[in-house]
Amino acid sequence: MAFRKRILCIGAGYVGGPTMAVIADKCPQYKVTVVDINRARIEAWNSPNLPIYEPGLDAVVERARGRNLFFSANIDAGIREADIIFVSVNTPTKNFGQGAGYASDLQYLEQTARRILEVSDRPKIIVEKSTLPVRTAEAMERILDSTPRGVHFDVLSNPEFLAEGSAIADLENPDRVLLGARDTASGQKALAEIVRIYANWVPRERILTTNVWSSELSKLTANAFLAQRISSINTISALCERTEANVDEVAFAIGRDSRIGPKFLKASVGFGGSCFKKDILNLVYLCRHYGLMEVADYWESVVRLNDWQQHRFVGRMLTHMFNTIAGKRVAVFGFAFKADTGDTRETPALTVVRDLLAEHAVPVITDPKAIPEARHDLADALDRVEFTEDPYEAVKGAHAIAVCTEWQQFVRLDYAKIFALMRKPAFVFDGRNILDHRKLYDVGFNVVPIGKAELIHH
Ligand code: UDX
Ligand code: UDX
Known about the structure:
This protein is of the alpha/beta class. The chain contains 18 helices and 14 strands. It has a six-stranded parallel sheet with strand order 3-2-1-4-5-6, sandwiched between helices. Helix 1 (about 15-25) links the parallel strand 1 and strand 2 (about 30-35). It starts with a strand and ends in a 9-residue tail after the last strand. The mean pLDDT is about 95. One uridine-5'-diphosphate-xylopyranose binds near residues 226, 271 and 338.
């Protein structure tokens, strides 16, 4: 079959892989190829064991792979044949030089742009999928315009708003698709070409088009606002613990105000994930760059508060466990940064485990999906941490359970059996407020939730 257009995606990660799988699934008339410098990752995409866990992803890949969805390590061949190139390489926080700790490291993006330039012999549409600092498209354009060969590239911004764990549902039924383009004839023509792809399954009124800079900045702003809600409710959780207010009740009550809304108000041990911290620090860096110090400080406090909330968790464990946890086994329930993913980037569980180690406790980590990642993240401490997929194994001889991820599996466990396996007094620190605290208390546990009264046996 002759394809209408050939789409290439550079970067087969958490964003590029699922996004392209859904585009291929919804648009059989397009050929979609995903390339990556990491050969092992490409091999995994071509195998029955996909490199990332995401509910529903297997079925989508199964339907499209080999039909119009291809994973390849041949980046140059992919660039050559493509009409449209999505760039979804990672843009981590820079850890060196100017802007270290805040700015985005754009070296992969630049290398990718240079590769596109070197290999292309005809015009192409370049779509920024990675989250980028505002005005990155300008740098991209300048690199792509830097040869005398005269090949023209249109650079568009198309940030991805999917959340991990619900990526397929988010992609199949997005609140909105955002596309930013230049207000030139060729920019608008390129824009229409990308709108046409999404219009195969996204209602037209949900496809928003803006200028390039608004699109780039909207992504940073969306993540900053989402993270801000969590830090805000987490500040209130601390106040609830002092005042006998209940943070879940407060969240419910304020969420009923339609101007506030009920979502993203769950107090927790802190937010994690590859995006929130990175994107806010990036926003902070941009603000400082433009001399907006107060604006930078405002957003930076969202990240600081999140760090504080994470450290506060082990602090409360210490207070309740007689000011010493040295030598005590602590079952860490969940290591992924949220439920339904094996991803552990910026996970609050890592902060918790590091704090436990600093107190000479013995963390025993259990997680249904993230044990390999946890081992990797704790490579320097493998002699001091234990790992098991079986929660009943993890609690044997433990003094406490620390819930760090909201896996539903943990809700359904037999806590009477667990209590029997543990040392007494046995504690549950519920960093996600997912367990039935009253029931646990009745079983015999001392229960310490986030943002509500503790239930302690005397
Ligand atoms: C990345 C960015 O981190 C995020 O800001 C953006 O919104 C989307 O892209 P993610 O997909 O989660 O998010 O990153 P990751 O899983 O690390 O995937 C990036 C992939 O790009 C990796 O597989 C990496 O090997 C690949 N890559 C990186 C290239 O193919 N070429 C490069 O030059 C650099
Ligand atoms: C986020 C954005 O939601 C998404 O739009 C963007 O494209 C990428 O960044 P993600 O990081 O995958 O997605 O997951 P998300 O569901 O936003 O959760 C982030 C963190 O916040 C998790 O650690 C989660 O447990 C935590 N969280 C979320 C809370 O602590 N409380 C809440 O109410 C919601």
